[in-house]
């Protein structure tokens, strides 16, 4: 596979277009063409319509292999997904922290008093009162 999407043969650097190109730097739309060359037979590429119509070679107009464009696009989407996942985690942590602040300090749990405890307390109070008399 050729690296024609990243450089030209006369030493000039081709302008790198991230992802799937839609316009060339010159403002003209980009089209998809099928290569008919021996090194890249039937390989699809994006090309500036102006450069394609003029049959320009070794120029700085957009020329990018479709498979490379898709790979770039997938990498960009992967990065965006990772950034969104980090943002979601951050928002979840913020929500958890705000929930803790709204609840205020934790209250001591109420001790449940069973009927036997109540009866014992009453007996003790009555016994103490009778003892003091």
Automatic annotation (TrEMBL):
Annotated InterPro entries: Znf_GRF
Highest taxon listed in the record's lineage: Eukaryota
Annotated PROSITE patterns: ZF_GRF
Residues covered by the GRF-type domain: 24-69
Single GO term (MF): zinc ion binding
Keywords: Membrane, Metal-binding, Transmembrane, Transmembrane helix, Zinc, Zinc-finger
Spans traversing the lipid bilayer: 111-131
Record-given protein name: GRF-type domain-containing protein
Organism: Brassica campestris
